[in-house]
Design brief:
Elements: E1 11-14, H1 21-51, H2 58-75, H3 78-84, E2 91-93, H4 94-127, H5 132-135, H6 138-164, E3 173-174, H7 181-187, H8 193-226, H9 231-259, H10 268-290, H11 295-304
Parallel strand pairs: 1-3
Antiparallel strand pairs: 1-2
Helix pairs in contact: 1-2, 1-10, 1-11, 2-4, 2-10, 4-6, 4-8, 4-9, 6-8, 8-9, 9-10
Length: 311
C-alpha cells in the first residue's frame, strides 16, 4: 500500500457488545451488577484476610494478590464499557487505547503467574505439610508475588509495543468492546505475520510456561495424594486443590483460545464471547469458587459481621 493512502489514526471506534439500541440499558444493568459484584466480593476477600490473623498464611496471602489483580484487571475494561452503552459515539483515543491494552495485559499476565504460584503453594503444602511454613516463609511468598506482578508489567510492555508498531489506516473501527490485541491486529492494514509470531513467542512465557508449571505441580500433587492411605485424607487434599484447578481451567481455557489461535482462524464475534468469560465471568466466579466456600473465610466473615462463630 502506498504511503499516500495511509492516514494517522488518532482515535478508535469500539463497536461494543451489541449495536441494538433496545439492548443497551439491559446490558448496562447486567454488566454494572457483574462489575459491582467483582469489586465488592474481591475487596471483601482482601479485607477479611487482612483483618483476621488466622488467615495470615501463605495460601491466603496469594489469595489477597489474586483478588487485587482481579480488581485491577476488570477495572481496565469495565468503566469504559459501561459508559459506552449510552454513548452516541463509542470512541477511545489512541493514547487511551495504548494504556488500556498495556494495563489489561499486565494484570492478565500477572494473574497467569500468581495462579502458577498458588499451584506451587498447594504442592508444597500437600507434599510436606510439616515443613510447609518453613519452605513457604514470608520472604519466599513476597518474592513470588512480586515476581508475578513484575512479570506482567515487563511482558505487557513488549506486547503493547509490538501491537502499536503496526500501521493503522483509514479504518479505525474495532469490532470489540475494548482495545484487545487480536482485534487491533485485525484492524491493521499491514502484514501482521511478524507481530503474530512475536506475540505467540511471548505467550509462551506469559501463558504456556505458567500452565506447564501448573500441570507439573498437579501431576505431583495427584501422585502424593494417591499415596495417602486414609480416604478422608485424600478427599481433604483433593478439596484444597479442586477450586484452584477450576479457576485455572476457566481463565486459561478462554485466554488461550483468543491469543494462541492464528488470526486467520479467529473471528471478532467468537473472540468477544471468549474475552467476556475471562474479563467478566471468571473474576466474578473466582472468589465464590476459591474463597467463600472456604470454612476459614466464612468464620472470618462471621467475625467481621459480629456474629458468633457457631451461628
Amino acid at each position: 500500500m502506498e504511503s499516500s493512502n495511509l492516514t494517522s489514526v488518532t482515535e478508535f471506534i469500539l463497536l461494543g457488545l451489541s449495536s441494538q439500541p433496545e439492548l443497551q440499558l439491559l446490558l448496562f444493568l447486567i454488566f454494572l451488577m457483574i462489575y459491582l459484584m467483582i469489586l465488592l466480593v474481591n475487596l471483601l476477600i482482601v479485607l477479611l484476610i487482612l483483618r483476621d490473623s488466622r488467615l495470615h498464611t501463605p495460601m491466603y496471602f496469594f489469595l489477597t494478590n489474586l483478588s487485587s489483580i482481579e480488581v485491577c484487571f476488570t477495572s481496565c475494561v469495565f468503566p469504559q464499557m459501561l459508559v459506552h452503552f449510552f454513548a452516541q459515539r463509542k470512541s477511545i483515543s489512541y493514547s487511551c487505547c495504548v494504556i488500556q491494552l498495556y494495563t489489561f495485559l499486565a494484570f492478565g499476565i500477572a494473574e497467569c503467574y500468581i495462579l502458577s504460584v498458588m499451584a506451587y503453594d498447594r504442592f508444597v503444602a500437600i507434599r510436606d505439610p510439616l515443613r510447609y511454613l518453613i519452605s513457604m516463609n514470608w520472604r519466599v511468598c513476597r518474592m513470588l508475588a512480586a515476581g508475578s506482578w513484575l512479570g506482567g508489567l515487563m511482558l505487557s510492555t513488549v506486547d503493547t509495543v509490538v501491537t502499536f508498531q503496526l500501521t493503522f489506516c483509514q479504518d479505525n473501527v474495532i469490532n470489540h468492546f475494548f482495545c484487545e490485541m487480536p482485534a487491533l491486529m485485525h484492524l491493521s492494514c499491514t502484514d501482521t505475520s511478524q507481530a503474530e509470531l512475536v506475540v505467540q513467542v511471548f505467550c509462551i512465557f506469559s501463558a504456556f510456561c505458567p500452565i506447564t508449571f501448573i500441570i507439573l505441580s498437579y501431576t505431583h500433587i495427584i501422585i502424593v495424594i494417591l499415596r495417602i492411605r486414609s480416604a478422608q485424607g485424600r478427599r481433604k487434599a483433593f478439596s484444597t486443590c479442586s477450586s484452584h484447578f477450576l479457576v485455572v481451567t476457566l481463565f486459561y481455557g478462554t485466554a488461550i483460545f483468543v491469543y494462541m489461535k492464528p488470526q486467520s482462524l479467529s473471528s471478532p464475534e467468537s473472540n468477544k464471547i471468549a474475552s467476556m468469560f475471562y474479563v467478566a465471568f471468571t473474576p466474578a466466579l473466582n472468589p465464590l469458587i476459591y474463597s467463600l466456600r472456604n470454612k476459614e473465610v466464612k468464620m472470618a466473615l462471621r467475625k467481621l459481621l459480629g456474629k458468633p462463630e457457631g451461628v
